[in-house]
Amino acid sequence: MTRLEEQPINRFNLTKEEGMKETSLYMAYGSNLNLEQMGRLCPMAEIVEKTRLDGYRLVFRGEDGTAYLNIEEEEGKSLPVIIWKIDDPCEFALDGFENFPIQYHKEYLELEVKGALVQVMVYVMNWGYPLGIPSESYYRTVEDGYFEADFDVSELEEAFNYSAQV
């Protein structure tokens, strides 16, 4: 996996049907693991693969009671993610939901998906937010996504405990 900052996202024409929008691959690690939430934000989004992102850890950043998940590079760590196929209207909706570019910016990672090395877009929190504790509702939304994806919830709990010890 390689970090590819400041490069435009590689668009993938993953469908061959006439009139289809261009699609991109989006990597979710937080509340957008939640199927109900993604269904509201991006009704045309499709799960491509559940996988792991190596070399990163999960942390909650923001003021206590309003912190959100972020990924940060850390050797020896990894975290579960869902790769979604999204279209342009979905990316626009996600931009608004993620408060892009004010709270989050986009990074492009090279990741193996379905046996091929591809670029995926991910939202990463802008620098300067302290470690913090999320609201209960945000935590439950992410936790529900972990259950739905059959991910190990102890990894989410580890992120909470790490972020809460400050």
Can you tell me about this structure?
With 166 residues, the chain is an alpha+beta fold. Helix content is 26%, strand content 39%. The chain contains four helices and six strands; from the N terminus they run E-E-H-E-E-H-E-E-H-H. It has helices spanning 35-41, 88-97, 136-149, 153-164; strands spanning 2-4, 23-28, 46-61, 68-87, 104-113, 116-125. The strands form two sheets. The protein has a three-stranded antiparallel β-sheet, with no helix packed on it. Strands 2-4-3 form a three-stranded antiparallel β-sheet. Strand 3 and strand 4 form a beta hairpin. The protein is globular, with a radius of gyration of 15 Å. The chain starts with a strand and ends with a helix.
Overall geometry = globular
Would you tell me the overall average pLDDT? 90
Total strands: the figure is 6
Strand order of the largest sheet: 1-5-6
* Low-pLDDT ranges: 1-20
Which percent band covers the strand fraction? 35-45%
User: Structural class of the helices, strands and pairings?
Assistant: alpha+beta
What is the rounded Rg? Answer: 15 Å
Q: Cα distance, first to last residue?
A: 30 Å
Q: What share of the residues lie within helices?
A: 25-40%
Question: Could you state the order of secondary-structure elements as H and E?
Answer: EEHEEHEEHH
